[in-house]
Amino acid sequence: MSREQYNDLGIENHSRGKKKSKLMTVLLIILFILVGFSLFLYFTNDKEPKQKENIVEPIKVKKIEKIQEKQKKETPIKEVTEEKKEVEYVNKEEKIIFDKYIIKEGDTINSIAKEHNIKPITILALNKFIATKKIKAGEILTLSNVDGIIYISKVDDELPTLIKQFSPQLSLEKYLELTQRESTNIIEGESLFFPSPIKKNIENLNLSKPCSGKIKTLFGQVINGIPVDYIIIELDEGKNEVINSLSGIVKDINYIANIGKSVIISSDDYIITYGNLKRMNIDIGQEINEKEEIGTAQSTLYYKVEVNGIPINPEQLFKED
Asked: Which of 14, 95, 266, 314 is found 20 to 30 A from 202 (Cα to Cα)?
């Protein structure tokens, strides 16, 4: 082989060696890049979630556990409170119930009222013909489980209006539920019970009898199919003077149909109407004392007593002679 041929061959081998070296370098660089990229993905996608699982999640769990624990503590208290309120209300006014009570020896209106947790005036309202100072053992009373009054309906009365007047704390629906009525229809002369507490306590109230005579028409007596809410006193012969039963103010002097000349006297929550008068010695706005003369009456005196607008039996309240 000549030198020239040898030199040519050496140059060619050297060139091939350089090409291989460059290729290896490129492959190493690519491999390095791939390894580096793989490591990058490994640390970003694998390591960080593990750290979140170890740090963030327990915090969330603790917060949730605290909230649940707080709810468990609060909820039972709320439920007990609501249940207690409902029980108190149901026991007080679930339904209005009327029962019969046989008077025992030694009973009084006050003792019976205390025993049954109602006010004396409720017993008086439910038992029109019972006089407070004359109840006897063996007599039967009607009692209710709540306080209230009896109202005798008139021609143009409407139940919703009466409820607003006597039981404003109740809705129409609640009143129907308590009284177990199926309709709002009422008829003239119907006895309606309204569970409305009366502010004025009359158990110690005493009235002076307005005239000398005997009671001819009783409170609650049925006349023409309607129970009356007044009394009629037949005057003793030769004694037609009418005196005031309770100190107050003369509110009105008027002529009222079927009652005649009338005087209305107001004393705090009490209103007394004197009717069928013949002569009057007083004026509107005048202050009038108990037992002061009002005037004279015909042969009979119309007499009506109301407490907070509720008619009551005055015979129960007359002072003993």
From this structure: 95
